[in-house]
UniProtKB/TrEMBL annotation:
<keyword id="KW-1003">Cell membrane</keyword>
<feature type="region of interest" description="Disordered">
    <location>
        <begin position="16"/>
        <end position="70"/>
    </location>
</feature>
<feature type="transmembrane region" description="Helical">
    <location>
        <begin position="745"/>
        <end position="767"/>
    </location>
</feature>
<dbReference type="Pfam" id="PF16178">
    <property type="entry name" value="Anoct_dimer"/>
</dbReference>
<keyword id="KW-0325">Glycoprotein</keyword>
<feature type="transmembrane region" description="Helical">
    <location>
        <begin position="526"/>
        <end position="547"/>
    </location>
</feature>
<feature type="transmembrane region" description="Helical">
    <location>
        <begin position="849"/>
        <end position="870"/>
    </location>
</feature>
<feature type="domain" description="Anoctamin transmembrane">
    <location>
        <begin position="298"/>
        <end position="884"/>
    </location>
</feature>
<dbReference type="InterPro" id="IPR032394">
    <property type="entry name" value="Anoct_dimer"/>
</dbReference>
<keyword id="KW-1133">Transmembrane helix</keyword>
<dbReference type="Pfam" id="PF04547">
    <property type="entry name" value="Anoctamin"/>
</dbReference>
<feature type="transmembrane region" description="Helical">
    <location>
        <begin position="696"/>
        <end position="715"/>
    </location>
</feature>
<feature type="domain" description="Anoctamin dimerisation">
    <location>
        <begin position="74"/>
        <end position="295"/>
    </location>
</feature>
<dbReference type="InterPro" id="IPR049452">
    <property type="entry name" value="Anoctamin_TM"/>
</dbReference>
<feature type="transmembrane region" description="Helical">
    <location>
        <begin position="464"/>
        <end position="489"/>
    </location>
</feature>
<feature type="transmembrane region" description="Helical">
    <location>
        <begin position="309"/>
        <end position="333"/>
    </location>
</feature>
<dbReference type="GO" id="GO:0005254">
    <property type="term" value="F:chloride channel activity"/>
</dbReference>
């Protein structure tokens, strides 16, 4: 009878499983009577008393009730929470001595964990891996919470929440304006900031400890404390192996294969309600792309380091909104004036049918300026007065973004108790110790006092650094070589298109082919630019994969001691390589193309070929096309496809190859399912930051050429937030909830880019665009103060008889052309100063120089003043932090005094808190209100 009931329950669960694959949150694990085994406390291999679970996770009634409500996150008794999972595999075909060594290391390690007070439970059933479940009891938890100075909430909050008070100052209209972007407070309630103090076991009367003490410390705090213990315990009894300790070293030595905290539940539709599912439904889901992020919930689930990343990404995305609006207005303005400006009208006028000099040697024909009408109009969309305004605006925007981010960062540090955060001294990396395992030179570390393997800098480390950065230089030159190859492709393709369109032997009787050739002839420059940009993007993608592997390999060879130093080193290397990879082709078009060209009859040659020249509309339109293709292509192909599409394809392939029945999936434990997820590496956020910082570089360094860049970046980032969130929730094991008060070295990189951007945009406006030549012509050379006649004034004459025989066009009829025009400011062939620069050229040269100097210095001074005027930490926040520190001291002093007098502190804690609320309540943050006193009261201490 019991077996029939069990079968009915299992069938019911399988039916529910059809609506939600991998559903483990709503199952009740049952076993036939013949399969039930008696729970027992067995002796582990190390001889200590631990709970062993070799059966299929037997549960009592309480545990079964918990499994109905959510994922099974407890030991077999249903009360002790699983705070960490250690996983390992036993290689059946491995060397016996290696298997025995790993077993002994795990035995010693686990014995030391039990000796520290941690409780272990084993799951050693047949499967992909064996598992050790770790629980930290209250006594160990409080001991290490005191050591690590974990902040916990006090019984009553004497401070009014800053965010609530600031929000209360907003008008109802503003609240209504932001209402559509707010999350539903019922499903994602606001987590109020509590007044916290560092935990002390002797002052537990201060803290708001609930009846269920296990829920007092947050789950991220529990896992962080367990990880702290795991990183310190030895796995060898040999005293000569000083660095045989820590879970990271054991994973590096393959004694364990993984160590991770469990996800709180399942995220799929139909799963029981849990924090992971709520985050997926209301944060990672694309349907919420326009909603504010629940940052406090992100922090409480993933920790401060990941919370700071998403805070920065969300803040950066919000700051793109005004830049996108201004850029869109500038673009619309350019579209409105593109067809009515005098330069575009003159080029498109058939009467001004100037015969232009060939674009390449020998095989390229003469061409008509009128044929580039569409190119000239398109160029005016991006090359106008609005471009200058937008470049200035973005220079200020970059500074404001960084300054306001520092204020936002300070606010989040306060809200998340990171204002007094200090990085703990990091132990040596396991890879560092492995590389120096045979080192015979040791040195006492000045902080830890431990003997560490020592590598002399000049004799051993310097040659490695020299070789490393030499390889980086070579890889940078490889990217520049790719750009030169693309330049050669552009020159060859343009010459081929010109020769193809001039071949009239096959088009005499074919009007369709003649029309096609005419269309190609008119847009040969644009077609060349687009295909070359796509080819450049392909090279960038290939080099990007190479650079990533090379940068990590080089950093590994440098034998860097700590993980932080390793991360900083790889950040600098990879950013430098990616900077050259992504920006070199754009820098070439912006600052070098057409600058050292020469003139007809005396062109400068490189590698036997003539250099490129800008089109009739200038190089800015080509820069815009190059920037748009690389920027959007990088975001669409390299980011979204690799982060979203590729994992789905891989998952689908795995499901097709290794099919599992739904019943088998349902019976898997949570730690088994989490083990199958991808491991969260130390560089999990590295690539995310790098992606956004490169985007920031596109927007600031070359924004004068592409005003729609901020809008494209805004749309991309709104999706990027959700894609990154979905990756952390659905694809990765739950990462360790690390604490970090800022974005680290990335801020310095962003600041450096913003400074370089001022110089970059100054030169783009001065050299790449025609803004300065048009301005000089209007002010000094125009007969009526307009741009009428500008096109003719900027085209010089060349006598075709001055061509050398090897460069002269050879097609039929070319000998009839006596003069051709080219884009430059040189004297005509009939003047005494033949082909020398004209007076107008030197006026424009001087104007460009003056503009660059004024632009740079003016922007630098103004942005410096902005940075000085805007404090890094809001004044009200400084006051709040000082007040909290003062109140914390006052509370401790008063309560300790009362305890010394023998009074019951628990009865008077509420009175003390109420007194603090009364004395220090403010109507507005940062401004104290004077508290009324009775005549017989002493002097007030209020500010």
């Amino acid at each position: 009878m019991a077996g029939a009931v069990d079968d009915d329950v299992k069938l019911h669960m399988l039916a529910a499983e059809e609506t939600a694959d991998d559903l483990d949150d709503v199952r009740v694990e049952v076993r036939n009577g013949s399969e039930d085994q008696e729970k027992s406390s067995e002796v582990s291999p190390n001889g200590t008393g631990v709970d062993r679970d070799d059966s299929a996770d037997e549960e009592d009634a309480d545990t079964q009730d918990k499994s109905v409500q959510g994922r099974k996150l407890f030991f077999k008794d249903g009360h002790r929470r699983i705070d960490y999972i250690l996983a390992y595999t036993v290689e059946e075909d491995g060397k016996p001595e290696d298997v025995e060594e790993a077993r002994l290391a795990r035995e010693v390690f686990e014995r030391n964990l039990v000796g520290e007070g941690l409780q272990l439970e084993y799951d050693q059933r047949e499967g992909e891996a064996k598992y050790v479940k770790v629980h930290i009891p209250w006594e160990v938890l409080t001991r290490y919470a005191e050591i690590l100075k974990v902040k916990v909430p006090v019984k009553k909050n004497p401070m009014k929440a800053m965010s609530a008070r600031l929000w209360a100052t907003l008008t109802g209209m503003v609240k209504k304006m932001f209402a559509p972007f707010e999350l539903d407070k019922e499903v994602m309630p606001t987590i109020p900031r509590r007044f916290t103090l560092p935990y002390s076991r002797t002052k537990e009367y201060l803290y708001d400890i609930p009846e269920d003490r296990e829920s007092f410390f947050s789950l991220v705090a529990r896992s962080r404390i367990v990880n702290f213990i795991l990183r310190r315990k030895a796995f060898s009894d040999d005293k000569n192996h000083e660095y045989a300790f820590g879970i990271n070293k054991m994973i590096a030595d393959e004694y364990y294969t993984a160590a991770y905290p469990l996800h709180e539940g399942h995220w799929k539709e139909g799963s029981a309600e849990n924090e992971r599912k709520r985050l997926y439904d209301h944060w990672a889901n694309l349907r919420c792309f326009f909603k504010f992020q629940p940052l406090d919930h992100v922090r409480s689930y993933f920790g401060e380091k990941i919370g700071i990343y998403f805070t920065w990404l969300g803040f950066y995305t919000q700051m793109l909104i005004p830049a996108s609006i201004v850029g869109l207005v500038v673009f619309i303005y350019g579209c409105a004036i593109s067809g009515s400006s005098y330069p575009a009208v003159e080029i498109c006028n058939p009467k001004n049918n100037f015969t232009m000099c060939p674009l390449c040697d020998y095989q390229c024909p003469y061409w008509s300026l009128h044929d580039t009408c569409s190119n000239a109009k398109a160029s005016r969309i991006f090359d106008n007065g609005g471009t200058v305004f937008f470049a200035i605006f973005m220079a200020f925007w970059g500074t404001l973004f960084l300054e306001f981010w520092k204020r936002k960062e300070a606010t989040m540090q306060y809200r998340w108790d990171l204002t007094d955060f200090h990085h703990e001294e990091q132990p040596p990396r396991p890879e560092y110790l492995a590389k120096l395992s045979n080192c015979d030179t040791y040195k006492i570390h000045p902080v830890t006092g431990m003997k560490e393997p020592y590598m002399p800098f000049w004799t051993k480390r310097f040659p490695v650094f020299l070789a490393s950065y030499s390889v980086m230089l070579f890889m940078g030159l490889l990217a520049i070589s790719a750009v030169i190859g693309v330049i050669a492709y552009r020159v060859a393709l343009l010459a081929a298109l010109q020769a193809f369109t001039r071949d009239e032997s096959k088009t005499a009787d074919n009007s369709t082919l003649a029309t096609t050739k005419a269309l190609i002839y008119q847009n040969a420059s644009v077609l060349t630019t687009v295909t070359a940009a796509c080819l450049n993007l392909l090279f960038i993608i290939i080099l990007n994969m190479i650079y990533t592997r090379v940068a990590f390999w080089l950093t590994d060879q440098e034998t860097i001691r700590t993980q932080k130093d390793y991360d900083d080193s790889i950040t600098i290397k990879l950013f430098a390589l990616q900077f050259v990879n992504y920006y070199s082709s754009i820098v070439y078009i912006a600052f070098f193309k057409g600058r050292i060209l020469g003139r007809p009859g005396a062109y400068n040659h490189l590698f036997g070929g003539r250099q490129e020249e800008c089109g009739s509309g200038g190089c800015l339109i080509e820069l815009c096309i190059q920037l748009a293709i690389i920027m959007t292509g990088k975001q669409l192909i390299m980011n979204n496809c690799t982060e979203v599409l590729l994992p789905k394809v891989i998952k689908w392939i795995k499901r097709m190859i290794w099919k599992e029945s739904k019943e088998k999936k349902m019976l898997k434990t949570p730690w088994e399912k989490d083990y199958k997820l991808d491991a969260t590496s130390t560089a999990a956020l590295f690539h995310e930051y790098l992606e956004m910082v490169l985007q920031f570089g596109f927007l600031t360094l070359f924004v004068a050429a592409f005003p729609l860049g901020p809008l494209f970046a805004l749309l991309n980032n709104m999706l990027e937030i959700r894609f990154d969130a979905a990756k952390f929730i659905t694809q990765l094991r739950r990462p360790l909830a690390e604490r970090s008060p800022n974005i680290g070295v990335w801020y310095n990189i962003l600041y450096g880019i913003s400074r370089i951007a001022i110089i970059s945009n100054a030169f783009i406006i001065a050299l790449t665009s025609d803004f300065i030549p048009r301005l000089v012509y209007e002010q000094a050379y125009s007969p009526d103060g307009s741009l009428r006649g500008y096109t003719n004034a900027t085209l010089s004459f060349f006598n075709t008889t001055d061509f050398s025989p090897e460069n002269r066009p050879s097609y039929a009829g070319s000998e009839l052309v006596e003069f051709c025009r080219y884009r430059d400011l040189r004297s005509p062939p009939w003047s005494d100063d033949k082909y020398n620069f004209t007076e107008m050229y030197w006026h424009i040269f001087a104007a460009r120089f003056v503009f660059v100097v004024i632009f740079e210095n003016l922007i630098v001074v103004i942005t410096g003043l902005i940075a000085y005027v805007i404090p890094d930490v809001p004044h009200s926040l400084k006051v709040q932090i000082r007040r909290e520190n003062y109140i914390a001291n006052e509370i401790v002093i008063k309560t300790e005094l009362l305890r010394a007098h023998g009074e019951d502190v628990d009865d008077i804690m509420g009175t003390i808190m109420d007194d603090e609320v009364r004395r220090y309540h403010t109507t507005d943050l940062g401004s104290m209100t004077l508290v009324n006193r009775k005549p017989n009261e002493g002097p007030s201490t209020e500010v």
